[in-house]
Each structure stands twice: as structure tokens, then as C-alpha cells.
Amino acid sequence: MNGVTGDDELARLVAAAQQGDEVAYEAALRLIADLTRRIVRRRRGFLGPETVEDLVQDVLLSVHAVRSTYDPARPFKPWLVAIVRNRLADHARRYARTAAHEAAVDNPDVTFLADEENLFENGLLDGEALRDAIAALPPAQRQAIELLKLREMSLKEAAVAGRTTVGAMKVATHRAMAELRKRFKTP
Amino acid sequence: MNASPTDELIHRLGARGAPVRPLAAPWLRGLLWGTGALAYLVVVDWVWMRTTTITLTLDRRFLVEQAAALLTGLTAACAAFTTVVPGRSRRLAWWSLAPLALWLLSVGRQCVQDWSASGVPALLPHWGCFAATVAVGLVPALVIVLMLRRGAPLTPTLTTALAGVAAAGLANFGVRFVHAMDVSFVVLTWHLAAVFALCLLVTRFGDHVFSWRKIPSS
User: Fold this and answer.
1) Per-residue pLDDT tens for B173-210?
2) ipTM associated with this complex
3) Residue A13 in contact with partner chain B when CB distance is under 8 A
4) Which residue of chain B has the CA closest to A151?
5) How far apart are CA B154 and CA B127, in angstroms?
6) B54 and A52 in contact (C-beta within 8 Å)?
7) Cβ-based neighbours of B80, under 8 Å, separated by 6 or more
């Protein structure tokens, strides 16, 4: 996809998507993902592939939320680029906020001063026990842990992937974490 | 081979591609809101006039002031609707500064003339003017915020500030017809203070009101 042809093609597909054409919509989203990936790499060349994909997904969700603001009579790329720029700026702000509250530390061999807390026999370090405990959770809670903690999705992405709401995903995660804490609590 | 999370997301969003009606042009939405707000103000003024005796002087200064307030409200509304459409220039936001400046100049000039004729007046409380402008402006403010939420939250603070100016400008336009306080100093202080109070009130909630919406679960 390049130049005017790409823009016309996208404009046509998004216009069809606004009419409810799901095939055209999926095709448009694929083109938008490719285009967004290129823009993000060009503007934020220092970002790793996973962060780039996070941003692409963020842009796709944003495009989905505001697709009614696109006027098919106007060029498509300025519309998309404005959304991408906005999401990139949001990401930079989020990163700055997080960085301001984090301190770089070495990866230590031990994590706690007390010797007994660093034993491999400690239940918290037993990966198999943790897997079993996650597997024993109710389905909604297990899915929340898998999507948010193991696959490291954002709440929004996890809600879409799990076909549920952000609120329900938060509740399921909270309950799952409480259950896991209870299970591994040292007597 | 497993699909990547992005591919999965595209597939899921594609399946949720229900038809959507493209939003009308920003200027058209601005005019639509302006027409509704003016109709509401006519009703408010009519109810107000039934309970109060009003003496109104329709001189040139009053007409210029009112035209500037009306234009400020309408241009700020059009500019606010432009800011929620990705890819549209935000230069329109500056257009509302011209009628706003004319409005302030018109009231300010009359103030200076009043002061040179009868001295600087005391700043007496006129909470009636203040409360009336804010109260009358809240309904158009609520409506414009709801209409703006259908757009993209690209610049929440600018969007809400323009929405506040739009609502307060039209509210002041309506209140001035029925609130027979024909003293420029009062208009400059209490009416315009109300305009900016309403503007600040709306802007205060900008980031909460305008954020990238959650995708519906269905």
C-alpha cells in the first residue's frame, strides 16, 4: 500500500465499514495496522517490537471507537495520522509518569534480608505450584490472570480478548490475586 | 500457527463492525447545537419575562455586545466540534477569539465611559447575575459535552474550554435580554466572571469527560 492508491483504498474500505461491511472493516483494520506500525517505527525507532505492537493495538481500538468521525469525502491518512500522533503522545506521557516513579536496580541474587525468605523451598518460588494454583482458579479468574499477568495485555485488550468488560476483568483479577495470595500465604 | 494478539484483535474488532453514521461536519453540528441552545434560551427568557418587569434599552452598544456574545458562542461551538475530528485543523479555535475580543472591548469601552462620567463604582455583589448566567448556561453546556463525546478526545482541555466559552457566551446572550442590569461594570465583572467560571467548571472535568472510550463488550 502506498501513496494515493493506499489512501483511496483505505477511504473506500472504511466507508464500507461504516455501512456495516465486516469483511471490508477487517481488511481496513489490517491495512491500518500495517500503516500504523510503519509510522510508529519511523517516529519511535527506539521502541521494542512488543511496545510497537502495543501501540498498534491501542490505535486499532481508538480507530474502532471513533470510526464515525471519519468523513468518507476527505482523505483518510490525515485522519489516521492524527489518531496515531495522539496515542503516541499518550504513550509518552504514560511512560514519563511511570519512569518518574521507578528506580533502576541491579538484579540481586536475593530479594529479602531474611534468609528463610530466599529459600527455593519457599512456595512462592515454586513455578509448578503456581501453575497448579492458577489452573485451579474459576474460569473467569484464570482467564484474567492468563491475559493480564502471563500475556501482559492491557486491561482494554484483555477485555476485548476475553469478550468481557474492563470492569469485570478488574474484578476477576482482584479476586484471583486474593485467592493466590491466600493460597501461598506462609503460616 | 497461532495468530498474533494484533491479528486476534483485528478479527474481534472486525466482527463488531456494526454500521455507524458518520458525524456531520463540525460547523453543522455547531449550528445545530446553537439553534437548540437559542430555542432553550427563548423559553427561559419567556418564562422570566412573565414574572418580572423588564426595561430594555436596545441601543447600538447593547446590540454590538449581544452580537459579539452570540458570535463568540457559535464560533466557539464550531471550533469545539472541530477539535474532536481527527485530521482537522485546530486553527478554527482562534476564530472565536475575534468576537470574544469584540465582546470584551465593547463592555470595557462602556465601562471606561461610565467611569469618566460618574467615577469608579464600588464592586457590589450581584450574585443574581452570576448565578443566572451559570444556571442558564449549564443546560447548553451539558448538551454540547454530550454531543462532543461522540468525537475523538484528542485535546480534552481545549475542547472543554471551547465548550465552556460556547455555553457561557450563549447563556450570557440570553440572560442579558431579561436581566435588566444595564451597567457595564456589572456586566464586565459579574456576567463575564460567570462566563469564565462556567468555562473553568467545564474544563475542570475535561480529562474525565473526554477519554478514549471503553470498547463495548458485545
Assistant:
1) 888 887 655 555 566 666 677 677 777 777 777 677 77
2) 0.77
3) no
4) B5
5) 36
6) no
7) B30, B144, B148, B159, B162, B163, B166
Count CA within 13 A, CB hemisphere, residue A58. 21
| CB spacing of A153 vs B12 below 8 angstroms | no
CB spacing of A64 vs B215 below 8 angstroms: yes
Task: Name chain A contacts of B152, Cβ cutoff 8 Å.
Answer: 62, 65-66, 69, 82-83, 86
Query: Residue A47 has what DSSP assignment?
Result: S
Q: What is the pTM of this model?
A: 0.71
Q: What is the dihedral of CA B142, B146, B151, B152, to 10 degrees?
A: 70
Calculate the CA dihedral of residues B82, B87, B89, B90 and round it to 10 degrees.
60
pLDDT in tens, B55-77: 667 778 888 888 999 999 999 99
Do residue A86 and residue B152 have CB atoms under 8 angstroms apart?
yes
| pLDDT value, residue A2 | 44
Please give the pLDDT value at position A70.
93
CA A6/CA A160 separation, integer angstroms? 28
Closest CA to A152 of A80, A20, A51: A51
Is B12 strand, coil or helix? helix
Whole-number Å distance between alpha carbons of B41 and B177:
10
Q: Which residue from B147, B155, B153, B137 is spatially nearest to B192, judged by alpha carbons?
A: B137
* Residue B25, C-alpha cell as written in the block: 461536519
- What is the distance between the alpha carbons of residues A91 and A94, in angstroms, rounded to a whole number? 5
User: What DSSP designation does B92 have?
Assistant: H
pLDDT tens digits for range A14-36 = 999 999 899 999 999 999 999 99
**What is the separation of C-alpha B49 from the centre of its chain, rounded to a whole number of angstroms?**
24
